[in-house]
Amino acid sequence: MFTGEKVRLRAYRKEDLEKALQFINDPEVKRFLAPGIPFPLTESDEEKFISKQSGFNTDAYSFAIETLEGEYIGGCGINSTDWKNSVAVVGIFIGNKDYWGKGYGTDAMRVLLRFIFEQMNINKVKLFVYDFNKRAIRCYEKCGFKVEGVLRQEIYRDGRYHDELAMGILRSEWFGAGNKK
Hints:
CATH architecture: 3-Layer(aba) Sandwich
Domain N-acetyltransferase: 7-172
Strand content: 25-35%
CATH topology: Aminopeptidase
Order of helices and strands: EEHHHEEEHEHEEH
CATH class: Alpha Beta
Strand order of the largest sheet: 1-2-3-4-5-6-8-7
CATH superfamily: Gcn5-related N-acetyltransferase (GNAT)
Shape: globular
Protein name: GCN5-related N-acetyltransferase
Number of domains: 1
Pfam family, one: Acetyltransf_3
Oligomer: single chain
Distance between the termini: 19 Å
Largest sheet: 8 strands, mixed
Number of helices: 6
Helix content: 25-40%
Number of strands: 8
GO molecular function, one term: acyltransferase activity, transferring groups other than amino-acyl groups
């Protein structure tokens, strides 16, 4: 369990299943997450995701995000790790819209970055975000991410093509910004 100012990152639990399925199938949440056809996930799909989470995995780590009061509100994690080059690819979502735009995602990302840089000894963290996800882009910039590239017209969503931004933060930038070492 890793704690920030507003949230705690913890392992997923079976009791998260119902809310997780509700969050991931919400059309407004889903439009920001995956480039594929926004087809709903089934309860079985979500059960498989939760059951395959393990501390023994060495490349990907998924955390449930909960408020300090214990309410499950979303998820984040390391989608892949390139140990040779010391690069991790991350993702995050806040599924409970009551917590959108209130700093919970920013706090969760900071906790995740602290875990990656202080516990995994990774040199670079990167992510990909659609250009229409302005709230997420602001969150990432607050955490120190910089735009490293633009994948032009990478995703077709809502009747037109959109760019996808590649963003990254280096270990030296994280610690240079006054974060603990």
